[in-house]
Write a structure and sequence with these properties.
Blueprint: H1 2-6, H2 27-38, H3 48-63, E1 69-71, H4 74-84, E2 88-92, H5 102-114, E3 118-120, H6 123-130, E4 141-143, E5 163-168, H7 177-187, E6 196-199, H8 207-220, E7 226-230, H9 234-241, E8 244-249, H10 264-271, E9 276-279, E10 294-297, H11 302-313, H12 316-333, H13 336-351
Parallel strand pairs: 1-2, 2-3, 3-4, 5-6, 5-8, 6-7, 8-9, 9-10
Helix pairs in contact: 2-3, 3-4, 7-8, 7-11
Length: 356
């Protein structure tokens, strides 16, 4: 809802094949497409769509005289910036060190050395990224959190609790949602009327994981305990957060080495004053501080998760103390305005006097 209200949608450009009609008359497009087909950039662009997309955005960058590109999801964006012949920087949202082989690590390190600026969303990612570049380049790897709107996500003590536990997560194996389902089967034996809501869904590429979660819920006998609410907008997420007692995100490192960075869902839950229960993977302990803002449990351990959640649900004083500290922690470090300022200061030397 806030994106629609902001007017940002009118400034966003997506790629569709039909949009190529807008640039076919431009010689720059044909030069960029040729380089995407036979130049060095082709190794980043395996499909015909990738090549057309990179050439399309490169043409827009050139036509509008942009001086710098800042990229998320770096592969296609990197190729577009290179085709346009402008410098670029990027934000690293996760750092899957366990998923990289030696060749990938060397390639990633070379990318870090090449760019003038790289942004990490967690201290965890920043440390590992800095370890891959010479000492004199480490200052260019800056920390900018994914900030949360502290004016929108606020506690509501007067709201009546509808759920004991809430989990907000896209259905991805690294979220470890199956361990929450397993924990729920144990907790229901201890707390009558125990209820969990899981907000999120799976894209088509991960439908198999959603099917697995549905099967696991049936196997554990908790269809009446664990509710899958599907994907919801941020207003509904806020409503549900303010009507829950504990936020749980049992993140894991998958067998392939993928994991969370530092999920925004944790920040939003903390901002609403909920105590957090999560694992110690990646950057999560920077927000979920054991015994201060929440409880940290071992990954892949449904029993430990059940113990932590049961403890908080049966200790209102502790739950309130941790929730208050969680709100204070996001105010100190994870606010949107603070991190917008950090990002602006990091990018300003590259965009002053020009366009980004």
């Amino acid at each position: 809802p806030e994106v629609s209200a902001s007017g940002l949608l009118s400034r966003i450009r997506y790629f569709r094949y039909r949009y190529l009609l807008r640039v076919l008359h431009h010689p720059v497009f044909w030069w960029c497409l040729l380089r995407a087909l036979v130049g060095r950039e082709r190794r980043f662009l395996p499909t015909w769509r990738d090549k057309c997309e990179a050439a399309y955005f490169a043409t827009l960058l050139k036509a509008r005289s942009h001086r710098h590109a800042h990229i998320h999801f770096v592969i296609q964006g990197k190729a577009a910036a290179r085709l346009a012949g402008i410098p670029y920087s990027f934000t690293e949202h996760t750092f899957d060190e366990y998923a990289m082989d030696e060749v990938e690590r060397a390639s990633y390190a070379a990318e870090l050395v090449r760019v003038p600026l790289a942004i990490a969303v967690s201290e965890y990612a920043q440390r590992h990224m800095q370890s891959l570049v010479p000492a004199e380049q480490r200052d260019k790897i800056r920390l900018v959190r994914c900030g949360v709107d502290l004016n929108k996500f606020t506690p509501n003590p007067a709201a009546e609790a509808l759920y004991d536990v809430i989990c907000v997560a896209g259905f991805s194996p690294c979220k470890g949602i199956e361990y929450l389902i397993q924990a729920a089967a144990m907790i229901r034996q201890r707390i009558p009327g125990f209820r969990v809501v899981v907000v999120g869904d799976a894209p088509a590429s991960r439908q198999y994981y959603k099917d697995y979660l549905l099967t696991e819920r049936l196997r554990c006998g908790v269809e009446d305990v664990v509710e899958f609410a599907g994907a919801r907008d941020s207003d509904t997420v806020l409503y549900l957060l303010q009507r829950s007692k504990v936020f749980v995100l049992p993140s894991i490192v998958t067998a392939e080495g993928t994991t969370d960075g530092l999920p925004v869902a944790l920040m939003e839950a903390a901002a609403t004053g909920l105590p957090l229960v999560s694992t110690g993977v990646a950057g999560i302990p920077e927000l979920v501080i054991d015994g201060v803002t929440g409880l940290v449990v071992p990954q892949r351990d449904g029993s430990a998760l059940a113990e932590a959640v049961t403890f908080l649900l049966t200790n209102e004083v502790v739950r309130s103390r941790l929730g208050t500290a969680a709100r204070q922690r996001v105010e100190q470090e994870f606010g949107r305005e603070l991190n917008e300022e950090r990002l602006f200061r990091a990018l300003y030397p590259f965009i002053s006097g020009g366009r980004c």
